[in-house]
Amino acid sequence: MIKFANVQFWVHDHDAALAFYTRKLGWEVRADTTVEGWDFRWLVVGPPGQDEIGLVLMKIPGPPMLDEATSAQLAELVAKGVGGTLFLETDDCQASYDELSARGVEFNDPPTEQPYGIDTSFRDPSGNNVRLTQILEFSLDRGR
Amino acid sequence: MVPPVRHLLRAKDLADGYYFEPLTVSDLARAAGLSPAHFSREFRRAFGEAPHQYLLTRRLERAAALLRNTDRPVTEICFAVGLTSIGSFTTSFRRVYGLPPLAYRESFPPARRLIRIPLCMAQAYGRRENRTFREAGPTETSLTSAGTKEER
Predict the structure, then answer these.
(1) How far apart are CA A19 and CA B125, in angstroms?
(2) How far is B79 from chain A (nearest CA, A)?
(3) pTM of the model
(4) Chain B closest CA to A108's CA: distance in Å?
(5) pLDDT in tens, B18-64
(6) Which residues between 57 and 76 in chain B have a beta carbon less than 8 angstroms from any beta carbon of chain A?
């Protein structure tokens, strides 16, 4: 059997990302290990209550991992919002929206009814997209 | 260091998230923290099209979704996506989607109208570039997804 262990986002700044995911989202730190000689930090966060999956916050590397030009391109692409999307579920979209807004998360859109449920979205400081959905029984009459 | 384009993304997100409000390019510029003239130039450089075009095509994409997925009247849909003139809505819809709104709706058999994908994906892939010329006929790709229907 194969399962998800960790998924990964590129970030521009470890500390800004860590502050966002822990203080604003309220997530836990699963791992935070720095390898001095490599300028490498293995930083993994995740939501309380779901220990088995983590989000790796990986700093966009420079040389020798990536040459300067590639590193700058990647940094630019992530900041443009095309780095990827994390799809999260909640049991109460409005409550999560209210709670996270109060903690300083700036949402892109208000909770909106869709045939598949109620959802909203926000971005982390680097521009990575996070979609937050309350799954409901599929209904064509919702969100019309 | 976060590249400055991150601020332009806030403007794009505002258009995607609040297209139904009476947004203008000035509002988008404010979200990016730039003056309107400077903003339009920078937005175009970052995303390949002018901000007013992006906002318009976002509104048209949402209108197309409402035409496919609902039976709401065209006038209502026009206002629901933040547009204020039925005449220019019809004109730009036809230019971008190749058919007037009602004909577009009718070109989708009910069972094929709806695809189960998340809204953000529908927004990203369903939006079409604005067109300058009227050469194009109906070209909407048939929205089939292996027997499923509706967006999720």
Answers:
(1) 32
(2) 14
(3) 0.86
(4) 5
(5) 999 999 999 999 999 999 999 999 999 999 999 999 999 999 999 99
(6) 69-70, 72
